[in-house]
Design brief:
The complex is a heterodimer of chains A (72) and B (265). Chain A has 72 residues and is mainly alpha-helical. In chain A, 33% of the residues lie in helices and 0% in strands. Chain B has helices spanning 3-14, 18-23, 30-43, 50-63, 71-80, 85-100, 104-116, 122-163, 173-189, 194-218, 225-249, 253-262. Classes of the chains: A mainly alpha (72), B mainly alpha (265).
């Protein structure tokens, strides 16, 4: 009996590992759940900020500036 | 034995047997397996294995992502072997194909035929499929309506901005601020499986369009409290509708519901 390790012939059987994925489950992975819900949350936040921050009067208006400048 | 019959015998011997074709499917390209089976079917038109061979070809084509190319074989089984077990198998395969192609009426008719069959397990298979496909059809109709509404809403806002003398083609502040998030979503989608990637891409690109259209019009709005509240509600509704459209279009609705009940993986 020898202590030599058997040589692995050809390519290794495990070609890649994909963390966070269970092929036997119907649930979405944590990453895709984060992307979908996070993306939707960002979108909603963008709309809300647009609705509440747009059209605010500037705190300081330059003397001599045309009327309405600083307001989009 | 004449020369002609000898040549015929040699030619027939060159065609592999049914079992050899089916057994060797892993050792050759699927298109070649389909070609061999088609040749076998031509040489053995009266064999009892004919319907099995036809269904086998249809399944192989579905595995190659060309399920629609297997439709003629399935329809031939329905036509030539009506009233047999093969008829029911082909009905199931065709109905599944119709669901993929979103031919809802044909799909539901196929499953109804199985559900009406007194024989188990076909009755159960048909009944369960009906329970699953009917809501799927309703979700798809809702998705189509919402997608069209969002598109028209965005186009109408851009048109109104142009009519009000604004510059809808110029990126509004909202899109400039949101560009990094949109870019990150599109980049992250590249690392996802196809269905998940499709959902994220739809959400990012649809969101960019809506943010642009809203920003273009709102840049010249006269702001009052009711208007701000109305725009907030409209914004939340757009975000929710876009998420629904992205999830349904990518075929992830059932997975999302499962995730809500069981939790993420």
């Amino acid at each position: 009996m020898t202590n030599e390790r058997p040589k692995v012939e050809g390519r290794p059987r495990i070609l890649g590992i994909r963390p966070g994925v269970n092929p036997n489950s119907s649930s979405l992975g944590v990453d895709i759940t984060f992307l979908l819900l996070g993306g939707t949350g960002s979108l909603a936040l963008s709309f809300l900020m647009s609705a509440w921050l747009r059209g605010r009067k500037p705190a300081v208006v330059e003397v001599g500036a045309p009327k309405g400048e600083g307001q989009e | 034995m004449s020369l002609a019959s000898a040549l015929l015998a040699v030619a027939l011997a060159a065609i592999p047997s049914f079992d050899a074709i089916v057994g060797g499917v892993g050792a050759r390209p699927r298109t070649e397996s389909c070609r061999q089976m088609e040749q076998w079917l031509q040489e053995n038109p009266t064999s009892p294995e004919v319907p099995r061979g036809l269904l086998w070809i249809a399944r192989l084509r579905a595995m190659d992502g060309e399920a629609e190319r297997g439709r003629p074989e399935l329809e031939r089984v329905l036509r030539d072997f009506a009233g047999t077990e093969w008829d029911l198998r082909a009905t199931k395969e065709l109905a599944d194909l119709d669901v993929q192609e979103r031919h809802w009426t044909a799909a539901l008719a196929g499953y109804q035929k199985l559900a009406d069959n007194p024989q188990q397990p076909w009755k159960q298979i048909g009944s369960l499929a009906l329970l699953q496909v009917r809501p799927q059809r309703e979700r798809y109709f809702l998705f189509e309506g919402l997608a069209l509404a969002l598109l028209l809403f965005g186009v109408a806002r851009l048109a109104l901005a142009a009519r009000a003398g604004l510059t809808p083609w110029k990126p509004p502040t909202e899109i400039l601020v949101g560009a990094p998030v949109i870019g990150m979503l599109l980049l992250a989608a590249l690392a996802q499986p196809p269905a998940q990637a499709k959902a994220v891409q739809l959400l990012a690109l649809g969101g960019a369009f809506l943010v642009w259209a809203n920003g273009a019009l709102l840049s010249g709005a006269r702001w009052t409290l009711p208007r701000r509240i109305l725009e907030s509600v409209l914004g939340l509704a757009q975000a929710a509708a876009l998420l629904y459209c992205a999830v349904v279009a990518a075929g992830l609705w059932d997975n999302l519901v499962h995730t809500m009940i069981v939790g993420v993986e």
